[in-house]
């Protein structure tokens, strides 16, 4: 497995214990892995786009974990399972489930009546996205999961999905660097760069 561990900037590193969960036996390089993950994620995007989502159905820990499983379940045995070890990002593993519950509860209140919220629908979605990435619930695929989850949330409230910089963000690129800078700004409660990026 030559470059299988080569991660794009800002990605959660895969360790040898994680790679044991790799399902396709022919995957040997990062390019192979990207190919099978993208195929699986495309199937999940299609599945998600065909469902009629409501806030009460989607804003559940079970729905978020099921989405991750559908995105990566053909590639990793641990897809959809909450992270059980420390990572370079995210909350302590023991706090993942309670943090996800709190996130779902908070966004349910915020998004149920956006006209009564201090934030626009886009800002509610951006804050959801940033918080989900910050929790970092899964071993890998957190950014991709959080982007799709955010688009599902937007669909559930009748809003258009984000364009996410109109670029593929899973690999190293200028748009990915811009996205990571915007996430870091949001770490300091500055959501404007992320709000601009998601609709660019």
CATH class of the largest domain: Mainly Alpha
Number of beta-strand segments: 0
By CATH, the superfamily of the largest domain comes out as Fido-like domain
Helix-strand pattern: HHHHHHHHH
State the helical fraction.
40-55%
Write down the Rg: 16 Å
Number of contiguous helices = 9
How many discrete domains? 2
Contiguous low-pLDDT stretches (5 residues minimum) are none
The description of the largest β-sheet is: none
| Structural class label | mainly alpha
The CATH topology of the largest domain turns out to be Fic-like fold
Q: Span from first to last CA?
A: 36 Å
- CATH architect. name of the largest domain: Orthogonal Bundle
Write down the overall geometry: globular
Overall mean pLDDT stands at: 92
Q: What does it look like?
A:
It is a single chain. The chain has nine helices and no strands. The protein has helices spanning 16-19, 30-50, 55-58, 61-72, 96-112, 121-135, 142-156, 174-187, 192-198. The radius of gyration is 16 Å and the shape is globular. The chain starts with 15 loop residues before the first helix and ends with a helix.
